[in-house]
Amino acid sequence: ALFDFAEATYPELLSPPAAEIQEIQGFYVRHYTDTDIYLGIQGDNVYAIGGAVGPDLISVGKIGSLITVSDSDITDLLLSNRREECSYYAENRFSNVSDIKRGMQFTGSLKITVEGEECVFVSNSIPNHNFNDSSAAFATNVSEVSAEFRTPIDPVFASSTTAISLATDNAVFLNGVKLDLLAAGCFGVGDGNIGCNDINQPWRYDPMSPLTMFGTDANNAHTQPDGTYHYHGNPKALFDQNAMSASPVIGFAADGFPVFGSYIEDAGQVRAVSSSFRLRSGSRSNAAGNPGGSYDGTFVDDYEFISGSGDLDECNGMMRDGSYGYYVTDAYPWVLACFKGTPNSSFDKAGGKTGGTGGPPGGGPPPT
Fold it and tell me: Rounded to two decimals, what is the model's pTM?
């Protein structure tokens, strides 16, 4: 629609009008051969270069300032786009969903824009699917919580990996809800529910373990003390869980690399990717301060990385078709264990707080 508008408005500059749209380095581009002008769209921004415009890329303006753009209803939408650049997802999105247990209606809001070399995600933290079903035991009620995250359009590898921590959210999904994998509950710290803010404290509970009780709903999500809905693992409503083709991009990690669903096409077959983390063999120490018992996945410390034992690397990602991305898995670490790039500071939790993710609701620590 933008190209049609521009060609009708500036026929002396943009001709012939039937030029083919190309994808070049994250831009949608038309080249007008008669005038040698290139018109390009990246995210919600319009650019031009060449011919009478000159040899330097110039900004024409925002798409919304030139044409009317409707917001996209993503209620219960299964994602399908596999483009790795966040700029391809720039638009305003909304959803109409229910808190099932409370019988309340919510409107989700997500605005994705491009500013310079970054994508900006502004959300009210409400998902695009119903939540708080009968399987959930949320410690606090879901609330609209404003959030803004920024990711680079062209992420780069850092010289070393950065482990996920309690101080930084891990990713933002394309429904505006964040990923916050780690719990603030550890064995032997307080009642085991919250307060385990030292990232080096051993025996941190894994919220995704079936042996713990973190009150998550069918989409592996629950609430933080301020009511922020967030995922601890597979956001099942975002992509086909029984896919017949490769999974789409479902979000972007704090370092800008894409997060894909679980499925890839491999030698003509569609299959789920596998993590390279495995349960340790034997039993935990029975010494003071240790939980004892067998390594069964109750704690994140129950796992170890064994290179080459699965498809994915130590961060739960891999290079594929020339691009790097993280993948949702049905086993630890569930989405990612570290960052290959440098996390953007917009993912830092407010005030540098740690332990933003509550532990199991009520009744003491999870069973061990």
Answer: 0.92
